[in-house]
Design goal:
The complex is a heterodimer of chains A (276) and B (283).
Chain A: H1 8-34, H2 53-60, H3 68-96, H4 104-116, H5 119-132, H6 142-164, H7 169-176, H8 181-209, H9 225-235, H10 240-275
Helix pairs in contact in A: 2-10, 3-6, 3-8, 3-9, 4-6, 5-6, 6-8, 7-8, 8-10
Chain B: H1 2-33, E1 37-38, E2 43-44, H2 50-57, H3 59-93, H4 97-108, H5 115-120, H6 123-126, H7 131-138, H8 153-178, H9 181-189, H10 194-223, H11 226-231, H12 239-248, H13 252-276
Helix pairs in contact in B: 1-13, 2-13, 3-8, 3-10, 8-10, 9-10, 10-13, 12-13
Classes of the chains: A mainly alpha (276), B mainly alpha (283).
Amino acid sequence: MNSEKRGPGFYVLTAFFILFVLFLYGPLSTIFILSFQGPNGGLTFPMNGVSLRWFESLLFEQQAVGDFGGAFSRSLVLGLMTMLTTVVVSLLAGLAFRRRFFGSGPLFYLTIASLIVPSILISLGIGLAFNVFGLEPAWYSSAFGAHLTWTLPFGLLIMFAVFNRFNPAYEEAARDLGASPWQTFAHVVLPIILPSLVGVGLFGFTLSYDEFARTLMTSGSFNTLPLEIYGMTTNVTTPVLYALGTVTTLFSMAVILIALATIAVLRKRRARRLAG
Amino acid sequence: MTLSRIAPYLQATPLTLILAAFLVLPIATIVMVSFWDYDSIQIFPDFVFTNYEETITSSVTWKTYLNTLKYTVIVWAVTLLVGFWVAYYLAFHIRSTTMQMVLFLVCTIPFLTSNIIRMISWIPFLGRNGLLNQTLMSMGLIDQPLEFLLFSDFAVVLAMVHLYTLFMVTPIFNTLMRIDRALIEAARDAGANAFQILTNVIIPLAKPGIAIGSIFVVTLVMGDFITVRFMSGGQSASVGLMMANQIALLQYPAAAANAVILLVLVLLLVAAILRIVNIRKEL
């Protein structure tokens, strides 16, 4: 159907798609603009001048409530922990599922269940379990586990998609040439799936970095960034809130762009190596 | 070789352990605690049905569940409608693969940013002095600000559609991309018009994707509490919000009983979707 002329349906749907993208990005851009509100400006339009006052206040002044720096560094470390664990565990599980093994069915359904069980149940359950066993919940233990129940199913599903398209002939060729199983994995399988692993890592990091419901009852005495932001919404009535929104959104976008650029570079390098 | 026979077990062990510790055990704990007793300061082991009794016999519970189901049905219908056409546009109207990937990423990026901030971002837009009210007033369409825009059911549904449509777009896009284009060609050669192709070829083949997207959206909305609390300004109720309030009051056994009921309801809904559509082929 590639060569035919565009019908009216195309133009209607293009308009619809543009509206959808505006719907996705429009609200986000309003807080982006409002975070540059002048020193006397409020939470809504009109802009009362333009300034960096609220960024300054966010980064350098002690806030009445909250600890932006601490929350950010906790979320960052937690995101990196979740990212690494998600990549390694999903990769291993993805490799396991390439073969039939006893219990593979139940494990698969359990992973899907992890995606379906509402977040607040995971939050409540882990909070209660720690309570019952007399453990102190903390962002690096209970919240870490809670985030993994959300990121691992995504990681595993991506690995399924990857290995479904993976041609086993590459591995057979490596084996025929005398490679050990480890060499086959390290020199043949890993380079091929590396871009997808970066994608899994991106999901692991961003889903953890932004997770709210699963952290609510599991973070212990110190807040992660989303909890901190949520706390601010009830207390803060200045555009500092928007400045925080802008800063964390730009950070998320930077992470996404770095991951996408890495994937593109890896793909290109591999294509060049195959061609040369 | 023995190593290659036990390799899958070793490889699956970390996933199994993590899910056992942070999914199975916590849910077992919820079920256990739902039979416990509590007073205003602590919870203690027991085997009572009062938590379930109090939950089921309260008319507030029923209203809350009905309200949650109402959100679920509306959000599901809107995200399905929007998500299907977005996916359809990307799959059938965008002709270059690169462009498809770029536009798909444009849709995906907001999903990877903070939900809370995406909710906050509606405030300057929908508020009493928000952009929308100001625009409508300056255009002379309304005399005074519309009050129902923010902190209402409308705002809750709007925010949920904003947050969750991508969960519909992705699986549907995935199934649409796998439809053999020759089938559409064949339908056209056999004299089908665009509408007939859509209803007789594309939608039946897209059903698994629609089912997966529906499962995502239904479970997300059923368990949601933060969007409801934030966007309704505390004026509407949902099951998740009711649980969050019970948790805040340290009534853990009551929250646990609610959690068990919610989980059963969600699983029934998922089972119903799976009965209608077979998604095996997708996995």
